[in-house]
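Forwarding these from the shared drive since the link keeps breaking.
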Amino acid sequence: MRPGDVRLAGELGADAVSFHFGQDSAHAVRVEAARSMRQAITPLVGSVASFSDNTQQEVREIIKQLRPNLVIFSGREEDAFCRAFGIPFLKTFEQALLPPGTDGKLLHASFPNAAGFVFRASGPPSSASHSSWKWLPQELTKPFLLSGGFRIDELFEVITTIEPWGVVVCDEIETQHGFKDGELMREVVFESRRADCHEVQNACESSLPDLKK
């Protein structure tokens, strides 16, 4: 990712830009580079630091230098570790590691301090139909994001069907590793906003009185 990618994401209307620091991430960046790119973030766009089994010292140092608005933990971290840094956090769960039929209440009990969750689909994108997302836990009361498992041209249907808090995109907007494609970024934001408007319109229409009675 380049400073220009960060700036364009904000100009297009992205809610936040995430910097990966997990050692197992192909998109991992050095904190010095992330701090430089953070300067390109437009006002009112959040910055996110994403970790995966980093040490407490590493997390503290990166938070100190980057000053993110939110952190995401995608490894084997437990609630006590995640909450120790005093910043709102999301906990990621991989589809491949989530037992079928997992009750959302168990996730809430395991991570009571999480602001929400990220559910990452395994494998290549599948259908946008509801049946393709049956692995998602039920009885979720906290916001959640979807990561992977969809194509950009399916994004509208995914959002209006599953109704996540938002989506995380990375490889979906790259034409080559580390280089974000501006047109693909534009398509993601457009489809996301279109889905948001659709949901708002439906909510408004359902609350209107039936004047035909």
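-- next protein --
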Amino acid sequence: MPGIDGFEVAETLSGFNKTKEIPIIFLSAVNTDKKFITKGYESGGIDYVTKPVDPDILLLKVKTFYRLYEQTLALNETQQALISEIETRKKAETKLKERVDHLHSTLESLPQIAFTANAEGQIEFVNEKWFKYSISAETFPKTHPDDKNIRDEWLLAMGSGNALELEVRIKEIDADIFRFHLLRIIPIREQEVIVKWVGTFTDIDDQKQIEKKKDEFLSIASHELKTPLTSIKAYIQLLERTLNAEHSSSTSKYLNTVQNQVSKLNSLIADLLDISKIDNGKLKMNKKLFNFENLLSNVVDTIYHTHENSNIRIEREGDAIDQPVLGDEIRIEQVLINYLTNAIKYSPDSKRVIIKTEQENTQIKVDVTDFGIGIPEHKQKNIFNKFYRVEESSLKFQGLGIGLYICSEIIRQHNGTFGIQSQTGQGSTFYFTIPLN
């Protein structure tokens, strides 16, 4: 190049970021002294070749140096990628630490006992309130001997990946009384993978005591009301016989109305007693083999008798149940009466109810279908809950919302299933299944 020699060109190329990695080989037939060779290397050359030159060796050198150049570029790119990844990880770790610190700070400020654990269930953090109930951050608070084991229940939850919600009784280290707490442990997921669990113990003992007193009051009140009702009903029957003998039709009609109302009140009290038994785990089933067809026939007769003024028509479809059923006949009758009574109540403009029975190898299924007001889909999941009533019908139709709850408990204790299929304005089908034996 005019005005510049090879050494200066090499120095210039070495001074730019884009060209400094280019391998430079000096080739000279004039400057063959040691000082020129030294200057070539100092200028950034990687080799200095003097003529005469073997072309094959020169070509091999060029190929070798070029390969080294490419490898150097690849190493540099890898290094930059590693540096970038390290920086990204450092930022992610910093951000994660900030999130964890914020979580711990939040849990520390809660009024509940709170903790976190890793994906495998090893406890990583507990707040200060934990140590009022446990001497170790790695040990759950002591539970009442009759309660479920926390660790066992949590292992089941971890196996399914679901949150755990469990009522347990725990006590402070220095206390003698166990208090009810609601334990909730929820999974924290990142990209659909559980990375952490967060749990809390919430003291619900005061609430449980209030519920207990309410249930006790309900039970006592129901029993106290049932006693005079039984006497009233007996005296009404005696009075009715007397009036029938005297042929007093108008008075007999009034007494019949009174007796119907007493029967309704008696049924309501019976339901309240059942609620009390369910809440206290005392609703027992007296299971024996019985003839389902006879039971169903008696239930239909009862419904016709108690709904004389409704002009309802009950139709039967499906299979005849020709095998004996093992269950509590009185309680299954209660379920059937409830289903049919509801079907009539909530379809005031329809005079038709269908009972469909199906017999499979190991169970029977009973459907009760009406053509009434129906139930919105988003409210169907709550229809078997205690005291639940659909708002749209609660003002028009009387009831406490306990009948279906009692039915669901009866079917559960028969190891059966229950449910509903409904469309607003088109009616509902309530069903249940129970094993044959």
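The longest strand covers residues 179-190. The first helix runs from residue 6 to 14.

- D.
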